[in-house]
Amino acid sequence: MTDRRPRNELLAGTMDLLILQTLTLGALHGYAIARHIERRSQDTLRVEQGSLYPALERLQAKGWVTSAWAKSPTGRRARYYTITASGRKRLGQKISAFDQLALAVSRVLGRA
Amino acid sequence: MSLLDAIRHRLRPLLRAREFDRETDEEFRHHLELGAQEFPEGGPRFGSRAYYKEERRRMTTLGWLDVLGQDLRYAWRSLRRTPGFTTVAVLSLAIGIGANSAIFSLIYSILLRPLPVSHPERLVLVQHSGPDLPNDEFSYNEYRSLGASAGLTSLTALGGTGHVPIVAGPVHDAVGVDGVDGNFFPTLGLAAQVGRLIDPEDERTRAPVAVISDGLWAESFHRAPAAVGSPITLRGAVFTVIGVAPKSFQGLAYDGGFAVAIPLGTQALVGGTPVETGGADSAALQLVGRLADGVTLAGAGTRLDATYRSCCAPAAPDAGGVQVTGIAHGIPSWKFDVQALFGRLLLELLGAAGVVLLAACANLGTLLLARASARERELAVRLSLGASRGRLAGQLLVESGLLAGLGAAAGLLLAHWALRLIAHQLPGPVEDRAGLAVTGEVLLFTAAVALLSVILFGAVPLWRATRTGLVGPLNEGGRAATARGAGWLDRSIVVAQIALALVLLNGAGLFVATLRNLRSVSGGFSPERHVSIELDSRGTSYESGGLAALGDRLLARAGRIQGVRSAALSEAVPIFGGRGLNPVVSVEGYTPRQDENMQCWFDPVTPGFFSTVGIALRQGRDFTDGDRGAAPVAIVNEAFVRQYLSGRNPLGATIRTAGGRDTSILQIVGVVGDARFTDLQVPAAPMAYLPLAQFQRIVSGRPLAVVTLTVRTAGDDRALSAALRNAVFDEAPAVQAYGPESIEASIDASLSRQTLTAELAALFGAVALILAAIGLYGVVSYRVARRTREIGVRMALGAAAPAVVWLVFRQALVLVSLGVLVGVPLAFGIGRMIAAELYGLGRNPFFLLGAGVLLLGVAVVASALPARRAARVDPLIALRAE
Fold first, then answer.
1. Could you tell me if B404 and B510 lie in one domain?
2. Which residue has the higher pLDDT, B546 or B307?
3. Considering the domain A9-108 in this protein, what is its CATH number?
4. B686 with B707: CB under 8 angstroms?
5. Which of B54, B127, B357, B463 has its CA 20 to 30 A from that of B245?
6. Closest-CA residue in chain B for A75?
7. At residue B59, does pLDDT exceed 70?
8. Which chain A residues touch B67 with a CB distance below 8 Å?
């Protein structure tokens, strides 16, 4: 069954943004990406596998991220994700779009 | 660069599915392990792996293609869960599709397949036009004159030699040899598979070279390339093999038979007519041309006709010109008109196959109906979980498509098998054509039929799926009321199938009985132990002088062959063929009615003919050698006596004929039994025999040009056939010989159509029976499943198992009885329509009765399983399911 579950575009977009931003640190495997986001958000954001990996797929399909298998420090094989040039360009656009959105939301809430 | 990456990324799961899945699993495991290390106490970190995979797939592949693959897998799983249903469904479809494919193969190979040459639709044959029968023989001079005609890109000539003794490697046989002009193969656009073909240079130099067929190459040289350059001997003359014709090329004649081609100018070496002697003697060429671009058949005919009339036609105003006819399927054989013999039968059979397919689809419809209602809850659950109706419908369609695909594959196997059964019943030349059965065209046809069947039966579950309500099935414990509307539909389908099966079984019985009657019919001659060979002297030096002297030599020689009991010559032999003559007669003492046709058929025979062929002498005497120079005599058959001499002593009565040089009076010296000459189905007409030696003198006025030698054998026909053929080759090398053929083979050939009809009718009858049984089973078991609760209640209230079983059987019996009621008048109607094809049956209700009883038996068998299921219903379980 491949029912198309309704997706929250804002959330999906935000997940993309967070992943791309995380990957500017360097090549990381999926777990490291998830943990990085969780730590930086002080565990406010939880990254489930069920949304992380599909998001990584999406980003790869768009050509913003590439991946390659490599040995991890523990000696296991792991898939490392890297941001591409077009991914970086996209990241810039996404950050400014997010800033606008955040500002707009704050304004509505009377905080800014 | 990144675009390319992106595309590659999207295609990966499709192209390397297993690796893709493995990596996905590995990545997932890695993630979980790292999580477990960091948080040994565990946490709410579960994600759905299946969902993830699904999502990855959806994201990475070409949407619908992947969805289709997934639906196929799903359909396959769900079909495997119900092996009984799947087997029955695929079998039904295989039978329906297989029947169509088999009949289409026959139709294609017999009626539709074009000659394997380049652009066969542009090939034409030149024929004389005029009051006579179609005649396509031209002299060499006419060929040369017509060659200059406009409208054709080329015109080529093909001569024939009849059967010629050949020695090629280990092969000692007799084959037809074609003399072909140098541009023959280029005109057809053929190329040799080994070596080269005859070209204009060979014709110019009259080189003794030969092109052999693929079959001869295999037989004589085991397909060795070294065959090129090897010598073969044709009627004693040595020819060098220069090449092998393409495997598919069987000659231009419809019925094939191509073996050896030699340059036209050399055909005199093997007993053919010398081409350039001019005059009427060389009249033996068939002219084949290729239409120029933009020229129609009629246009080319008009231009050729103009050329012919200016160069070659006699000045008489009513003398014929020429016309052309298309030969895309080959040059029709004058002896064997397949189109007329099989065309209608095959189209009728395709109609029957179509009906069978409809029945199979109807079956599948009822089966799927039953399945759909069993799956109603599943569908409802999926709908309520958010599956879209379109998506469900698509999936059901894929399931139907998968069934059709499996059915088509199995059907092709069935068709292949059925064709092998059928092909050997076809007359030789047709069998050869039908041998190359399952071709690309047949596959295409099968695919189309499968698609059609998906549309036909796939509509049922679709219709159901789109009507499935959410609340009903879930609420009512699975016994939805929706099936009620469809109840009449599936039952009437079954009734129609029973009726159809009754009609087909009755037809099968009638045709099989007809064949049996025909085989056992006494043709008035002995049906075994004699072998005939026809000698045709037309176009040879014998023609003007007649075959009389040769005949005497042949009779003497045949009598010396080991195993020959007696030998005789005649113009015609029962069933084997021959022509005889048809003069108008008057019989002493008989007054014809107004306008009565007084033509009587005569067969000239030598003494001993009757005992050789096994025709009984009833009265008087046989002809003797003493009749040769004596007064004209005749022997008549019993039908003649009944018709013209009833109540009188036939011996001594006289017949006057108006044929011959002058009126002759023949005295009847004997009476023989009636023998059926042309058709075993048709009772013998009045006929007479006269001594062969008196033939030219008395009735005909023409010399005897075609004669048949028949010998009665003591044992092994085959060894004797070879000896007989050698004797004919030795004594009369130039004469064309047809045969030898045993009378049994002649009878088989004459019954080929009836045999084919009977076999196919039996096949269709069996198919209809099986389909009806399946349909009945489907409906009855569906009903039982529907009524489980009711049966449970009945049993709870004290109904015994036998009563429940009877409940089920009664249903099946009612359906069959209804079907029989509908079928009987239909069967009578069809019986009347095919009455002309039947023999010796009259109004015979036996087959109808038999078919009815058979169907009742089928009803019992088909409902046995559902009845058992019903008897085992546990009232507790049935009621608890509420």
1. yes
2. B307
3. 1.10.10.10
4. no
5. B127
6. B30
7. no
8. 2
CA B603, B607, B608: angle at the middle one, nearest 5? 100
Low-confidence ranges of chain A (pLDDT < 70): 1-13, 112
Domain total of chain B: 4
Provide the residue range defining the domain that includes B692: 538-734
Q: Which of B14-23, B789-798, B819-828 has the highest mean pLDDT?
A: B819-828
Radius of gyration of chain A measured on its C-alpha atoms: 15
Q: Cβ of A3 and B387 within 8 Å?
A: yes
pTM over 0.80: no
Domain boundary among B301, B326, B351: B326
DSSP-derived 3-state class of residue B131: coil
Query: DSSP string covering B704-759, please?
Result: --EEEEEEEESS-HHHHHHHHHHHHHHH-TTSEEEEEEEHHHHHHHHTHHHHHHHH
Q: Is B292 helix (H, G, I), strand (E, B) or coil?
A: coil
Does the ipTM surpass 0.85? no
pLDDT value for B13? 62
Residue among B27, B34, B54 whose CB faces A79 most closely? B27
Residues of A with Cβ-Cβ distance to B23 under 8 angstroms: 69, 79
Is there a single domain that holds both residue B555 and residue B513?
no
pLDDT in tens, B84-94: 778 888 888 88
CA distance A78 to chain B (A): 7
B241 and B273 housed in the same domain: yes
Closest CA to B721 of B711, B736, B708, B730: B711
What residues of chain B have any CB closer than 8 angstroms to a CB in chain A? 2-3, 5-6, 9-10, 23, 26-28, 30-35, 38, 45, 47-49, 51-52, 54-56, 58-60, 67, 70, 382, 385-388, 391
Q: Is residue B111 part of a domain?
A: no
My answer on whether B576 and B506 are in the same domain is no
Query: What is the distance in angstroms between the Cα of B6 and the nearest Cα belonging to chain A?
Result: 5
Of the residues B20, B22, B52, B74, the best mutation for testing chain A's interface (the one with the most A CB atoms within 10 Å of its CB) is B52
- How far away is chain A from the Cα of B473, in angstroms, using its nearest Cα? 21
Q: Is the pLDDT of residue B190 over 80?
A: yes
The domain boundary residue, chosen from B734, B768, B784:
B734
Residue with structure tokens 């060499």? B140
**Chain A: closest CA distance from residue B469 (Å):** 19
Q: Are residues B681 and B772 in the same domain?
A: no
Residue B96 domain flag: no
B374 with B447, same domain? yes
pLDDT of B241 above 90: yes
Q: Are residue B139 and residue B236 in the same domain, yes or no? A: yes
Residue boundaries of the structural domains of chain A: 9-108
Q: Which residue has the higher pLDDT, B255 or B768?
A: B768
Exposure pattern of B570-583 as b/e (b: 16+ CB <10 Å)? bbbbbbbbbebbeb
Q: Say if the Cβ atoms of A76 and B30 lie within 8 Å.
A: yes
Is 70 exceeded by the pLDDT of residue B881? no
Min Cα–Cα distance to chain A from B93, Å: 28
- What confidence category does residue B801 fall into, taking pLDDT thresholds of 50, 70 and 90? confident
Q: What is the pLDDT of residue A23?
A: 92
- Interchain contact, B388 vs A76, CB within 8 Å: no
Chain A residues interacting with chain B (CB cutoff of 8 angstroms): 1-3, 5, 29-31, 34-35, 48-51, 53-54, 57-58, 60-64, 66, 69, 72, 76-79, 84-86
Provide φ and ψ at B208, rounded to 5°: -75, 75
Interface touch B31/A31, C-beta < 8 Å: yes
With CA atoms as reference, the chain B residue closest to A57 would be B56
Q: Which of B49, B52, B54 sits opposite A2 (nearest CB)?
A: B54
Mean pLDDT across B367-396 = 72
- Regarding whether B635 and B690 lie in a shared domain, the answer is yes
Q: Confirm whether B188 is domain-assigned.
A: yes
Kind and range of the H or E element at B422? helix B389-423
Structure tokens at A63: 């050509």
Per the domain annotation, does B406 fall within a domain? yes
Identify the residue with better confidence: B815 or B427: B815
Res A1: pLDDT: 36
User: CB-CB: which of A50, A63, A76 is closest to B48?
Assistant: A50
